[in-house]
Amino acid sequence: MKQQLIDNLKKYGQEHLLKFYDSLNDAEKADLTSELEKIDFANLDKLIKTYVMSKPEMSIPDDLTPAPYFPMNPETAEQQKLYAEAEAEGKKLIAAGKVGCLTVAGGQGTRLGFDGPKGTYPIGPVSNNSLFSFFANSIARLQEKYNVKLYWYVMTSLLNREATEKFFAENNNFGLEKDQIFFFSQGTMPAIDYNGKILMNSKSTMALSPDGHGGTLLALRKSGALDHMKANGIDYLSYFQVDNPLVPVINPLFIGLHALEKSEMSAVMLAKTNAFEKLGNFCISKGRLEIIEYSDLPEKLATMTDEKGKLKFIAGSPAIHVISRNFIEQLTASGNLSLPCHRADKKVPFIDENGNLITPDKPNAVKLETFIFDALPLASATMVLECDRVNVFAPTKNPTGVDSVESCRMMIMERDAKRLEAAGVKIPRNPDGTLNAKIEISPRAAFDEEDVKNYVKAKNITAIAAESENYLD
Predict the structure, then answer these.
(1) Last residue of some domain: 397, 416, 436?
(2) Residue 31: inside a domain, yes or no?
């Protein structure tokens, strides 16, 4: 083992990580050394002092104001002209291959009672297709629509990387070419106990966990994804999370506005359903766009209304972004990315000084994460666009209830039913307005409302039968 590494461990009080080193075989020694060499101990020591040994208080800026945004529908003739130009520009950029898709897919399906990467979860209400399938089919349809080859960047965790790639292979990459899917893994951070010591979960491995979706930006550089984008002429990334099958993998209007406004990082906003909805709040402080988490925004601000009774802090974040490649390159040029950390107290299994595995029954350590929205204040220009949640947001976080598998499937069917109704198809509904049929349109068949109208016309669909089950592909 390199002497510099040993000296570093002693310098920062982490020499206990080598306690069992001499008892390890050569492969285990190599694994542990590799893990340790990836850690910037000087930076980690600062983080431990800031976020572990003390518990920083969340301070709300005195100058906090609601962030401005482009409304869902243009409100003036000038905006109408801008939106038309932006949509045309977005379509032009897509057709030129300037836009790539970026899916954050590091999570497991544990909370859903599912054993496997969350992206492999069968979410289709009729088809039972996986979350990954929804995105892949959308990309395939866009390629056909714009006669272009699109690239898809899929960020996994170290834990689910192998299973994710295996799932894609077993499904023949959902009809996409293998070389247009770029898998990469997010970084990790060690768990730290309340004495500032890094925990180990075996004699040869530290207790590591993903470093949060803020780590996406640095992982893009370290994995070679940024170089891959540049080589393939990609200037913009459409960013979304794997648990939201309603999200448009690329939104032409959103891309176009981002480009025309010369934004470096843009965001979709949803009008919050109530003052305390669990969405981050778009705010402005010191002239910069930032997101204040729902749990941190003071009640006084959260409930503030205008003269019409509308919430002032109405703009909530569903974690949908457009990010310019140049911006990511600038932020990560040094090989590091300085975003604020967020502390989470967790129960972390670890081995004690005798090498025995301990499973705690209460929080015993801190996990540090970075969030991608904390890059917003670092951008020289930003933009926020309001979207209709019915068309872009159906998170799959729980088995039942709010933001669940049940609610997501209902929202998919309702979105598709409304698209069919807009195309002139009669949809059976109960007296309370709910659907009286199961309906799902494959993203491969129709990406947007225009596609649905063309599909209905081509298939001569006039009505959906009551209590029927329909998969339109």
Answers:
(1) 397
(2) no
